[in-house]
Amino acid sequence: MTSILTNVAAMAALQTLRGINNSLEDTQNRVSSGYRVEKAADNAAYWSIATTMRSDNKALSAVSDALGLGAAKVDTAYSAMDSAIDVITEIKAKIVAATEKGVDKTKVQEEIGQLQQQLLSIAQSASFSGENWVAGADGTKSVVSTFVRDGNGNVSVKTTDYVLNTTSTGNVLFGMTSTGTIETSSGIIGTSSGTIGSIYSMNISTFGSAEISMALTSIEAGLEAMTKAASQLGSISTRIELQENFVGALSDSIDSGVGRLVDADMEEESSKLTALQTQQQLAIQSLSIANSSAQNILTLFRS
């Protein structure tokens, strides 16, 4: 039965066209934005996961920057400690030379005095971003190492600590006062070794053989402590480098994982777009045919 009041064929064709247009709009949005899941309405679960992981990835980016800053601090401290070891080794050589008979210890002390001042200069200069790890009071220095989200969704920032020790067997060249002034009476170089004084303050001009021997013993102990401190700094530097590489790889993995959840497959979407455009043209043609069917009824009333 054909009705001029209700065109069932046109209604069906129109409904089909609307569905195709909606699908075409969705596909065009995916092609233009590059996202399969752009908002929560597209897929609430995937959108929620992707949003959380993007937030974590930004935190990891900040951690990467902090690791770079921490690496600079540690490298500065290591370079200073390594330079100080070279200076102490030179002082040791001068003291050994002073054991020879006929050597003017006053002249040797003049050279040692310059090296002692160089040690102070190294300690004063070994500061990065306001922090000095080779001259400081007892305490803990920290660098950010990573950002962690546990299985329960709790987040935390982990740090790598370096505890400063101002004793003669510690890991700083000199101590530091609360006002930020180098304290030359503490630390590996500043702590006194009895009657001969500290490595920084000793004066071999009047030393006899016994004092020279004590000075060499003090120098050896200082070298041992400084070598240990340099090893600690080197270990931290290596760990920071490994952590930087891990954070970079982790960030890339998160980006890749988020992409798998929300990115559009452009090859698939391109194929869909072409197919839907063809379907749209056919649906328009079908609707046109359905609308023209009512005109055919007029032929029944022509004489």
From TrEMBL:
Keywords: Bacterial flagellum, Cell projection, Cilium, Flagellum, Secreted. InterPro entries: Flagellin, Flagellin_C, Flagellin_N. The keyword Methyltransferase does not apply. It is found in: Secreted; Bacterial flagellum. Residues 217-301 form the Flagellin C-terminal domain. Flagellin is the subunit protein which polymerizes to form the filaments of bacterial flagella. This is Flagellin. It comes from Rhizobium bangladeshense.
